Amino acid sequence: MSRSGWHDHAWHLVHAGPQAPALHMALDDVMLDDVSAGRRPPTLRIWEWAASAVVMGRFQSLRNEVDMQAAQRHGIEVVRRISGGGAMFIEPGNTITYSIVAPVTLVDGMTFEQAYAFMDQWVIEALATLGIKAWYQPLNDITSSVGKIAGAAQARRGGAMLHHVTMAYDIDAVRMLEVLRVGREKLSDKGTTSAQKRVDPLRRQTGLPRDVVIERMIEIFRSRHGGLVSDRLRADELARAQALARDRFGTPEWTALLP
Asked: Which of 238, 250, 7, 210 is nearest to 97 (CA)?
């Protein structure tokens, strides 16, 4: 297998309306299968969230990561994704999340560290055009001098790879610390202001509306990677994802897979 380049693929863009957290988990799963099987072209998917959520990594313990009583009190759904990495705190309008589903040839021969850096380079370039000097922080963060901006995770299956990233556009640090146990442990001795410094939102750094930041990201992806065809989810993709969300990603059994 020889490595391919961004320009070797005809990239498609999917940016649908707000969807439930479990459905987002299922869509990544379905699209990974479809790109692997050649049923879907390589795709950049921008997510919109219908509800607040905690998204746990595939191998995390629910008990260790999340205060479920606090999550229920705040109406925050807890879901588990198919990729590894840490828990992400999500609020609609405060988060920019995207997935890239690509042939695995794009990162052929790379170490995981090299693959993360490679897949995030376009976003770092987009942030630079908005006045943010950001860089890749191994293994899976995008950061700046004033704090972490984003966290990434990856999964591979068959001939395809999934690379998805959650970026903090704005953040309710108080609520985040109530719900995420790990964040609370890291920051409890330093107070909430440290949480805001540790995760520094794009809104504060750019002063720009969220949709403007997303537009710039899409522009840079399109110009850097040889185009981006506007697309939508096919009816069969959505139906399969809805069934997966109901039968797996939305079930207590999957969420508490590692209790």
From this structure: 210
Question: Tell me, what DSSP letter sits at residue 246?
Answer: I
| pLDDT tens-place string over residues 114-142 | 999 999 999 999 999 999 999 999 999 99
Ranges of H-type helices in 167-209:
173-179, 181-187, 192-198, 202-206
Which sequence spans correspond to the domains of the chain?
Answer: 6-242
**C-alpha dihedral sign at 247, 251, 255, 259:** negative
- Cα separation, 175 vs 194, in Å, equals 14
98 Cβ contact partners less than 8 Å away, ≥ 6 residues apart = 44, 45, 46, 47, 164, 165, 217
Class of domain 6-242: alpha beta
Least-confidence region, from 68-82, 89-103, 192-206, 216-230: 192-206
Q: Which residues of 178-196 are buried (b: 16+ CB within 10 A; e: fewer)?
A: bbbbebeeebeeeeeebbb
Question: Which pTM value belongs to this model?
Answer: 0.94
Q: What whole-number distance in Å separates Cα of residue 184 and Cα of residue 64?
A: 11
How far is the C-alpha of 167 from the C-alpha of 148, rounded, in Å? Answer: 9
